């Protein structure tokens, strides 16, 4: 009876130990699987976090690039608007309209027709609204040259209140020798002197135009080449202003 009880108790303890070992192994397995799953979850979260950070960095760069592009486009738009405004203003200033356009076309047609530009400019400069003027007075005199300096050379207008004098370059003969009279193809200098010392001068190739105001009168002079050695001076006298 004692031996039977001993065998029974020993088998019981073995079953208990085996059950305990199984429980421990099962618990270890469960813990291992849980730990592995937890570690995998951590790694996945880390990987996802890295991916999200990279996506955020990429989106941030794209946002900065788009903002820079938008700023550049706005600047380009403002520059284009300013340029358009400048061109519109220039167009309004430089392209004639109305009466000015008609006159511009008329001048262009006359120039294409062969009319001398200087002549046309003179005609336009002489055009003016009606004024209180006296009949034109025309006189002539000989120009002073390097070989023709002696004597008083000039003409007077306005009862002697204005004197017109001038000088030019000597003409040359076919052998190149200097002559006494002036060369109308070279620039001349015309000096207009009013009473009291008020004066003005003009230099250039004839014909020339100049004006001078003395007291309450404006004298407008046209100086043109005449017969050899002479220039012809036409003076218009009008009330001023």
Biggest sheet features: 4 strands, antiparallel
Largest sheet strand order: 1-10-9-8
Q: What's the β-strand tally?
A: 10
Report the average pLDDT across residues: 84
Low-confidence regions: none
Secondary-structure class? alpha+beta
Domain count: the total is 2
Total of DSSP H or I helical runs spanning 4+ residues: 3
Terminus-to-terminus distance: 161 Å
Helix content: 40-55%
Explain the overall architecture.
This protein is an alpha+beta fold and 241 residues long. Helices cover 49% and strands 26% of the residues. The chain has three helices and ten strands; from the N terminus they run αααββββββββββ. The protein has helices spanning 2-94, 98-112, 117-126; strands at residues 137-142, 155-157, 162-167, 170-172, 178-182, 188-194, 199-204, 208-214, 217-225, 230-239. The mean pLDDT is 84. Residues 42-83 form a coiled coil. One of its GO terms (biological process) is cell division. The chain crosses the membrane at residues 20-38.
How are the SSEs ordered, and which strands pair?
Blueprint: H1 2-94, H2 98-112, H3 117-126, E1 137-142, E2 155-157, E3 162-167, E4 170-172, E5 178-182, E6 188-194, E7 199-204, E8 208-214, E9 217-225, E10 230-239
Antiparallel strand pairs: 1-10, 2-3, 3-6, 4-5, 6-7, 8-9, 9-10
């Amino acid at each position: 009876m004692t031996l039977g009880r001993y065998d029974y108790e020993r088998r019981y303890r073995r079953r208990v130990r085996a059950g305990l070992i199984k429980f421990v192994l099962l618990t270890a397995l469960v813990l291992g699987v849980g730990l592995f799953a937890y570690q995998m979850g951590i790694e996945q979260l880390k990987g996802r976090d890295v991916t999200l950070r990279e996506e955020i960095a990429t989106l941030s760069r794209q946002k900065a690039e788009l903002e820079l592009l938008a700023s550049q486009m706005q600047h380009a738009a403002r520059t284009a608007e300013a340029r358009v405004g400048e061109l519109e203003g220039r167009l309004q200033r430089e392209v004639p309209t109305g009466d000015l356009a008609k006159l511009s076309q008329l001048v262009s047609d006359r120039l294409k027709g062969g009319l001398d530009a200087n002549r046309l400019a003179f005609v336009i400069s002489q055009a003016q609204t009606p004024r209180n003027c006296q009949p034109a007075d025309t006189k002539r005199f000989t120009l002073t040259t390097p070989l023709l300096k002696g004597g008083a050379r000039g003409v007077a207008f306005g009862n002697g209140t204005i004197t017109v004098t001038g000088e030019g370059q000597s003409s040359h003969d076919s052998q190149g020798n200097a002559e006494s009279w002036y060369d109308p193809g070279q620039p001349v200098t015309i000096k207009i002197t009013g009473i009291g010392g008020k004066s003005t001068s003009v230099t250039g190739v004839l014909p020339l135009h100049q004006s001078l105001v003395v007291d309450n009168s404006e004298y407008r002079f046209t100086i043109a080449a005449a017969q050899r050695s002479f220039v012809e001076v036409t003076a218009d006298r009008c009330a001023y202003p």
